[in-house]
Amino acid sequence: MKKITIAIDGFSSCGKSTMAKDLAKEIGYIYIDSGAMYRAVTLYSIENGLFNGKEVDTARLKEQIGQISITFQLDEQTGRPRTQLNGKDVEDRIRTMEVSSRVSIIAAIDFVRKYLVTQQQEMGKAKGIVMDGRDIGTTVFPDAELKIFVTASPEIRAERRYKELQEKGEKADFDEILANVKERDHIDQTRAVSPLRRADDAILLDNSHLTLAEQKAWLIKEYQKATEA
Ligand code: DC
User: What digits encode the pLDDT tens for the residues 9-62?
Assistant: First the structure.
C-alpha cells in the first residue's frame, strides 16, 4: 500500500497526540509530536535562564538555537516515543504546568518556528508519517494526503488535562487549567506567524462526545479512504 503523510492539527488538549500515536502504531507509521519540540525549546529556555517571568530573551535564544537538538527515542515498554533534549530524556519535564504556561510564547517566535519546521519537514521526507501540531497541514506538510483538524470544547479539554495530571500525581487545579487552555487557544489563533487555523482541505473532527474507540474507527476509515484515493 502506498505510504502517505498524515497531518493532525487542532486545539491544545483535544487528544490529538493520543489519536495520532495510536493511528501510527496501528498502521506502522512514524509518529512525531511537534508540540513536544516547542515544549523542549521552552524547557531549554527555562533551564538556561532565558526567561525573566514571562519574557524571553530572544536575542540570546537566537544565538543558542543551533545548539538545541531534539530527538525521539522509542520507549520499548509503551511503544511510544520519548522526547530527548540534547540527548537527555525530558518527556516528563516538558509536560509540567511550568512549561505549558510558557510554551505559547516560544511557539510565537519566528526563528524558533523556522528552525523546527525545517527539522519536521526533514523527518517527513520519506512519508509514512503521522505528525500532530497546529500548522502541520498548513505550513509543514501543505501537500499531506490526509489532514484532520480536531476540536473539542475548552471545558472538556481542561477536564481531560486535569485527569491526566492527577493520574501522574501532579498538582492540578481545574480553573487554572481551563484558564491556561483558553489563553493558549487565544495565543495560538492570533499569533502573527503560522496561527492555528484549519487548512481548507482538512477534515473537521469534533471529538467532544466521542469515545476513544469511536474516534479510532473514524480515523482508520479516513486513512483507508486516503490510501485508496
Ligand atoms: O500540542 P501541545 O499542547 O503539546 O503544544 C504545545 C504548544 O506548542 C502549544 O501552545 C502550541 C504550540 N505548537 C505550535 O505552535 N505548533 C505546532 N506545530 C505544535 C505546537
Answer: 999 888 898 899 999 999 999 999 999 999 999 999 999 999 998 899 999 999
Q: How many domains does the chain have?
A: 1
In eight-state DSSP terms, residue 147 is: E
Closest CA to ligand 1's atom 1: 35
Supply the DSSP string of 29-46, one letter for each residue.
-EEEEHHHHHHHHHHHHH
For ligand 1, is residue 184 a contact (CB within 6 Å)?
Answer: yes
Instruction: Give the domain range for residue 169.
Output: 5-228
Task: Give the atom of ligand 1 at the shortest distance from the alpha carbon of 36.
Answer: 4
Ligand 1 pocket, 35 CB below 6 A? yes
Cβ burial, residue 34 (10 Å; 0-12/13-18/19+): buried
